[in-house]
Amino acid sequence: MKDVLIQLLKSEVKPALGCTEPGAVALAVARAREVLGHECKECSIEVSANIYKNGMGVGIPGSNGKVGLEIAAAMGLLGGDSGLGLDVLESVKETQLDEAQRLVDEGFINISPLKEGDRIFTRVVLKSEYGTSEAVISTKHDNFILIKKDDETILNTCMSNAAGSASEGEESPVVSLSIRQLIETVEKFELKEIEFLIEGISMNKKMAEKGLYQKLGAGVGYSLKKAIEDGFISADLINMSMMVTAAASDARMSGVKMSVMSSNGSGNHGLTAILPIAVYNDKYPQSDDRLAKALAISHLVISYVKNYTGRLSAVCGCGVAASVGSAAAITWLMGLGYDGVEGAINNMIANLSGMVCDGAKAGCAYKLSSAAAAAMQSAINVKYGSIVPKLNGIVGETVEQSIRNLGEVSGRGMRITDDVIVDVMDGMNKNKGVLV
User: Where is the Serine dehydratase-like alpha subunit domain (predicted)?
Assistant: First the structure.
């Protein structure tokens, strides 16, 4: 199990340039263009409702302030390199931006949302004078399940279901363990096996610095920094966690062309999973061994929660998953034991379980600041003996039951919520902010 968890960390903790939903679309388009081999004359894209929701209003790296799936797809079509994975847009040249915008303005990029099928799903079909190509991503943002050129199938890992895509039903290996067993396993890791996780701190701090020293996006982190400098609020653990995490989100959601270390398919999850731990480490320095293990706990607890809530859902993953992982890790760093970690997780589930996701955009910085603050608060509350009682709302008899209950509420309980959110956002988009 130790080796399995280390491999899971290597697959789920990786750099990502820009929001992963537009990144997935750009990646699929770039791969389809490479397979097509000729000038594209027609571009049709189908995406899951969750991809559509998360990509509608978010800044695209290297686009000079443009937002949305269409410009990401156009950039991927003109200059994306699928070999870069979710950093696919790193290869786009500034000289290609005007042409990308022209394709968007002329309606060349056709994107339609699907309300059925997997939550992470992108199908791209390109046509030239000489033939067609198709690329399909499903279940994970960089997971190709189908690649075709004309009638030739280059790749096909589809499982038989209605969407023709891989199933989301596979359980994460972490859920074969209890939370206590998960942490006990992490404690047996050697530093050399997980040292790569520490890189996420420097990567994500660099993104935060962009949002701290320049007002970007919603300017949440920047305004909190000014409030601390003016003495309006204090530079304590909670406020510093809010400030740093929000600033990184401000910069990332505005389209700053820098990679962050993602977690479980999301850059914002990575910010929330890592930066509160970094803030705690700045105030109470840890050895590299303990710091790496804390990061491993954070990422793996997120995997545990996401197994039940899904990689994308109607609820904010930063609020209901990434902050849970961060709270667990900080509590462990405080030396509060397994019971304390379980208590911090229950505190988080009692707190932010109802935070909805209305897509990736500038306003996410507010949600990340709340998630980071709640994570730190939950750990601090445990330190002083405050843990939400068992059988309290959706908090169960055990922490594992609490997480399963959270998944039920987030998944089965809020599916219609997701549809309504997409309808509202789509209606405003089509009517320039006036819902009719």
Answer: 86-422
